[in-house]
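Posting for a labmate who doesn't have an account.
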Amino acid sequence: MRRSIHRVHAKIGYLSIAALFSALTLTSTAFAADADWKGTTDTKWGTATNWDSSTAPDGATETNTNIKAKTDGASYAVDVDSAGAVAKGLVLESDGTNKVTLTVKADANLTLKGGATSDADSTIVIDAVGGGTTAGALVFDTGADLVNNGTLTNNGTLTLTAASALVNDGTLTNNGTLTLTATSALANAGTLTNNGTLTGGAGLTTNAGTLTNNGTFTANSLATNTGTLNIGADTTTALTDNTGGTINLNGGQLTTGAIA
């Protein structure tokens, strides 16, 4: 009889542990949900009540961060106005009427661990230092890509770290510092204008759109140009294939390797 009781107790204990493990797993899964912007309180990214999860993204508990004016039928202006903002990924969705504008303010920074995608009617602005101490900064972690189909204006600092890609199919204007580190890559099929400092990585870099340099442009591997390069300032790159492309020297000098 005692053995039977012991077996029952052991079984109950096992079931209790299993139930606890299952509950913890479900809780963890429940927390790993998208963070959706609602903007019910103000325009500040860090205000918890602006998010449907009642907490600002932290890059750990959310699976993705969404600002969807198109879906919600309302225009959203979202301001990252403090240092240390983090998100796992970012999706901006707009339409002709309901639009998203995301601004990284001076003295603020946003780090994205899972990349970002913006559609044709969405806007991203990174502010200059202005009256602050430092310029706004948008940073993409290792392997996190930026796909811009809308309008992106960098007046501050935009950085893509190792194994990341910047894909521009929209309009990108760099008036600040845009850095693609070591193994990151740039693919431009839209309109890219550099009035500041753009430093390219060692990954494959291509231009099938219009790339205009009026500032400092150093790309270690602008390998292929099938679009238009407008050189308004001295430009250094490793361009080797200009088949089907056009290069306009508008007061600048192009330093490169042998071009096919």
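Reply:
Got it, the structure tokens are right above this. The two ends are 90 Å apart (CA to CA).
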